[in-house]
Amino acid sequence: MGSAVALKRPKQGNHYYFWVGVFFFIVIGVVLSLYFSARQIDYTWRWYRIPKYFAYQEQVEIRSEIDGEVERISKKDNNAVIRVKGTEGTASYAAPVSALGFEEGDQVYYGDVLATYKKWRVGILLEGLWLTLKVSIIAIVFGILIGLFTGIARISSNPALKWSAISYIEMIRGSPLLVQIFIWYFVLGTLFNNILAKHGIGQIPPLWFGVAALACFTGAYVAEMVRAGIQSIHRGQTEAARSLGMTYVKSMRYVILPQALRRILPPLAGQFISLIKDSSLLGIIAIRELTKATREVVTTSLQPFELWFVCALLYLVLTFSLSMLLQYLERRQMAV
Amino acid sequence: MIDVKNISKTFISHSTEVKALVNVTARINPGEVVVVLGPSGSGKSTFIRCLNYLNVADEGSITIDGIDILDPNTDINKVRAEVGMVFQSFNLFPHKTVLENVTLAPIVVRKKSKEEAKKKGMALLEKVGIQDKANVYPDQLSGGQQQRVAIARALAMEPKIMLFDEPTSALDPEMVGEVLDVMKNLAREGMTMVVVTHEMGFAREVADRVIFMDEGAIVEVGTPEHFFKNPTHERTKLFLSQIL
Prior knowledge:
- The structure holds 2 protein chains of 2 kinds.
- Chain A is an alpha+beta fold.
- Chain A folds into 2 domains: 66 residues, CATH 2.40.50.100; 212 residues, MetI-like fold, CATH 1.10.3720.10.
- The radius of gyration of chain A is 29 Å and the shape is extended.
- In chain A, 26% of the residues are buried.
- The model of chain A has no long low-confidence stretch (mean pLDDT 90).
- By secondary structure, chain B is an alpha/beta fold.
- Chain B contains 9 helices and 10 strands.
- In chain B, a hairpin with a 2-residue loop joins strand 4 and strand 5.
- The chains are: A alpha+beta, B alpha/beta.
- At the A-B interface, helix 7 and helix 8 of A face helix 2, strand 6, helix 3 and helix 5 of B.
């Protein structure tokens, strides 16, 4: 990029700042036109409603389940244990000291509120974000493993390995991810879970079929990158390794793969960023990741404009962090 | 030590057959330095690569230290561990430091401890005069330095035989000397060596025997005196007149 710029004649300062101005004009123009279009249809922006979907305070009430007398309140730091002694036995309840509504010796009846306090809870968007992150990380790890194995099998001379790898890669790359998710969930999922049920074993939750779909999908693309990476390493490297008495496996492990993986890190990063975004499709099989969570919140809050922007922004946070992390790794290896 | 009998090798590329080796027979004795000369395309690289099974001879037999390397039951990795190879393009491992290049194979193939391999590796780097570059990466070295590291890397396996495939052909002229010096020292120590090269001076000075190849066949074998002063074959005379 630097060299491409260097090829051009140096620009005068004013010219440059004019185009910087144009850039900001475009940005502000887009935001304003969005705002005024929303006003046209009488949309009311209520950004203040958004934070509660990240975290909110829940009112917690502790009620007595028996009639009796508060026999004892033992306090330790800010935690109290209330013992209620009734005619038919005693019951204990834990609550923060500041939340207590009764004192020792007070009479309580069934259903009385012994203590009331507020507690921070994680909102649905944050839960969705966490699930997206979790699904993506698991799928990336398995995707790498599948991709490594398949990529190596792809260039094997053994027809069973090679043809299996080619069939897998072509099948996965040639069909839509959405369809693959349906197949994993509705076909394979039904098969697995029915067979498991027949043998009296517990069911596999949809999450894992979603993860499997993403991992297999990514694995096929990673496999092609691994293959290209290995093939891009000069033959002389293999020859040098083998001439030192290393087996095929050792030369792969110590000489070829470390170099190949370094080389494919940039396209790999792109693939993983795609995977994070593709995980938004998992909502259709009842996995409440970020997109599904946003959809649910939209139906209850009726603030779609704010929420969809927030949703996009949260994906951006994930993908941008990942791309920063991988760029850091890349730079560190360049230094080597 | 190396016994090559009637090997042939044909490459097929784009449905044209190229006869790289035709009925080649040769013998390399322990402690001997054999230099293989010949014009380009004469099959000398294929010949030396066959000795290490990097190319597989189609016919004939190759026995190294009594082991038939063309026998499918032979563990070729064991044979290769005893036969060091130095390539024209060095082929150092770019992701490893100089010292790691030298110690990798002893550690993963010979199962030596890291300390032992490092000690031996440093001694070898000192031997090839490059100990102060032990912890840099190969791309920071000149061609001559890289080739000396490659020689140390091969020697780290304590091979019985060293094969050199045009070790100085990719070097700038001023770096050829430093690599040849290392090879001369090695020859003086009694290493069995097979060297494919265009360095006539090296052949004359160091070789016990010279093999001259042309069009995939061995044309003439003899001592350097015989070869350079009284070659018998017309083809040899022509070759020498072209290069000397």
